[in-house]
């Protein structure tokens, strides 16, 4: 046997602590400039990523060297989604307290599969479940599963719906599967791609979707809905991924309740509007649904990897997510794995709890209210410039911007991305190429908006100059 084993090496690293201190120092330095620097990595930083292209190492190296490599070449190649000038996709920053709590939780390395595996994680999951019921005014007994994001939360909510609708028809989906099962109808409007993915994974298929008509903001027109019945799952949206609009929940949920259809709401970033006094009109009636999917890592600003499925029907969710095994002893306390597809997972509840405990209702109200103000500021400033047009009603945090034609829009977007003052992506809205601005960071200031609008102006100037040459 070797005299100094890999185990000895690791105990020594643990004892010496220097890699932890090093990583901690790098992390704190990172936070000092990530809010001010170029939002997107420089060409040089991107080219330097080549250092990671190597064949699998034969031997173990010094732990310090691993941490140093990550810091030297990984750090500059990060995108500053944490900062206030990242407006791409629909993302989110992370609150300082959430980063700190996550850091602490990393050292704990807890797994909330069962209560016996992590009493602290099980406790925090039960507490946050109750808080969410209170916050969104959901029926008592609503269950929460803590998953990686809204994609998985949508999958869970729709799996619960599938279970319940078939069970009412005497069909046990877990035993009999979907072949020859009674037909389930799927009705939706401008659903997010993650809904389509969930429908594919659950075996419904895209061709079976009945598409409801939507208005010019992407909201379902209730009068255009097909007849709903007890075999229907209707999927609504709190926060359209382009326009930020909300489906008219109250009207549609009433119809669905009468028809005993199942309503699932994809509220990835928009459901939090329900906690904001001046925005609550947008979510009116959303608590009449059967299941909901919402992210922590978007407008709430927990670190990534934080989504929640909420389901009014505990039995439907836990039966759809059922697992059993002789070694699994179900306790009277919360066993997380009965609410999620995974068995082992990270205790992401630590950051979610920390974020909610820190902000409280008033903090969420204020923080997300500010995001909405910044979106309105952006829309106002950009539409006062020649050559830019705002294409949506800015009701929440999304602004859709176009230029005079598709080619200009596309080139201007490319120029903005290359300037690196802010970062945004493109989309298609009503057949037109657009630039999509999503304000989801606690850190976005009025000054960030002014700087970003200037970058739009600069990008258009570059495009005009290129054209005239
Ligand atoms: C982001 C988003 C999703 C997907 O959520 P993830 O957390 O990325 O899995 C689903 N629906 C909407 C409306 C979204 O904005």
TrEMBL record:
Keyword vocabulary terms for this entry = Decarboxylase, Lyase, Pyridoxal phosphate
Q: Which Gene3D superfamilies match?
A: Aspartate Aminotransferase, domain 1 (3.90.1150.10), Type I PLP-dependent aspartate aminotransferase-like (Major domain) (3.40.640.10)
Superkingdom as given in the UniProt entry: Bacteria
Q: Which residues cross the membrane?
A: none
Q: Which Pfam families match?
A: Pyridoxal_deC
The coenzyme or cofactor needed here is: pyridoxal 5'-phosphate
What InterPro entries does the record tag this protein with?
Aromatic_deC (IPR010977), PyrdxlP-dep_de-COase (IPR002129), PyrdxlP-dep_Trfase (IPR015424), PyrdxlP-dep_Trfase_major (IPR015421), PyrdxlP-dep_Trfase_small (IPR015422)
UniProt lists the family membership as follows: Belongs to the group II decarboxylase family.
Provide the protein name: Pyridoxal phosphate-dependent decarboxylase family protein
Q: What is the lineage of its organism?
A: Bacteria, Pseudomonadati, Bacteroidota, Flavobacteriia, Flavobacteriales
